[in-house]
TrEMBL record:
Protein known as: Major facilitator superfamily (MFS) profile domain-containing protein
Species, as recorded: Naganishia liquefaciens
Keyword Transmembrane helix: yes
A Pfam family the protein falls into: Sugar_tr
Annotated transmembrane regions: 72-98, 152-171, 177-199, 211-233, 245-262, 339-360, 366-388, 395-414, 426-450, 462-481, 496-515
Compartment annotation: Membrane
Major facilitator superfamily (MFS) profile domain segment(s): 75-519
Entry keyword annotation includes Magnesium: no
Keywords per UniProt: Membrane, Transmembrane, Transmembrane helix
GO molecular function: carbohydrate:proton symporter activity
Annotated family: Belongs to the major facilitator superfamily. Sugar transporter (TC 2.A.1.1) family.
Amino acid sequence: MTSSQTQLPYLTADEKDTIIHVDDITKDDLDAKVNVQELAADGTHHVSSADGPQSAFGDLTTKATVFKFKRLFSMGLLVGLAAIYMGFTLGIASNIVANRAFIKQFGTVIDDHGELALDATHVSVWGGTNFAAQLVFQAASPLTADRWGVRINLYIMTLAMLVAIVIEIVSTNWIHYLIAKLFSGMACAYLGPGIINYLTEISMPKMRGAMLSSFAFFFSLGGLCASIALKLIADLTPAKFRSAFYSQFAIFGIWVCVLLYLPESPAFLCKKGKHDQAKQSLRRLIGSVEGYDFDHEYSVLQFHVEDSVAMNKKLSESSWAAIFKGSNLRRTVISCLPFTLQAFSGTALIFGYSTFFFSLSGLGDAFLGSLILNLILLFGITISIFSVDYLGRRTLVLIGCAGCALCDIAFGGIGQMPIGPTAGNAVLAVASVWVFFYAGSLATVGWGYLGEVSSLSLRSKTIALATVQQSLISLIFQYTVPEMLSPQKANWGVRIGYLFGGLTFLGMIVVYFFMPETKGRSAQEMDELYARGIPARKFHLTETDYQNAQRMASA
């Protein structure tokens, strides 16, 4: 060893069971807060640094992380199953309005052909009430999550889900169905933030993208199941539309089994000082993994939780006002971006009222069109689950926004054509392309990005605010889109695509300047990058202290 290098000190008595793997290290490296990787006598690994303990598995690839922690990844997928209900109930609500038996039961007006029809205002109120309920209960969700844990929100969601299903089955007029939409909105309000918060807190950085994307996958699977159910009902037993409501009990039963097995989030228990329970929860999630030192890895979690809480306490950040201060304001605004873009791109049009949209364009079988779109959505999301941790969130969103905007403009152009089979088929073709772009970008990034960008100590509040903002925008579009489409009102028809195309192009510009890349970043790295004020476009190029320490430890 040269004179410019410094010998490592002898081990202390507390360290006698470990062997340091780094033979020598420069003084500059020591000053740079270098990690030291150790191999304990029992074969487990741990890494420590001047910035606190580090996970010994931070340098694994995405594929290696998923395979090594199969149990944890599988638990995440099971949690994502709840999204099937959200996709199914919203899919049923938006598409069943084209069922003749449903119209006969809930219709209150006579159309131009002398037939009973749904009042466009009632359809708007149903959709609006659902999202209004989401808005209110999403704002309340952090109160229960911060006090009693993430899992309590999942129990509230499950109860609201059950009530909504029962009321849908027994409803006989549009008011009854409106009440069902109220409880359905409540269930969705607790479902989204609860699931995303839970998945974010239990996942490892390298598998987080795929795990959070599973929420979008199961959401689209629920929508696909809704389309299949309605198509079968329309073809085989059109008068028995309530069969679609009964089928939700199958989803409910599967989810209850999953919910009863889930442990509370280790991060929440750690924050509450319940360390023994937190370690038990961690063991239940991780299972048996070779070389995994539970005490050390828990110390990593504990260090980050305490560091995040302390950082926010310095600024007296314990209330809702905290998310609007300093770097947290930037994180809050960025958290809202993907959801805003989802609405701007035209989700209310394509998914909210697809059968209504198709029928107005002249498509012969609107239910079949909805089914095709949901199949493409599921296929696109499946691809993005495997690409989101390789291509990155920012890249996917920019590509997706460009594709969706062009398709929206194409809708407007088709709107200049006479209504008929040709225009209807053209709308279905463009909608299929739109769905593929959306599935590969905004559909998967939206919920996942929300969990990644927010800080640990303010995550439940940030998620709640972002989802409230999403529901507010969705409420506006859910109420106005039927009014804009309907011949009874504005009569824009397919020309509505011009509106969403312009909004999406504007959103894409905002994304380029403000949406950072979070691929593979740990919560600790995200805190550092925001604290340093790194521009969004340079996030993926910036090396953090954590990366420097990991690289030196590997050396």
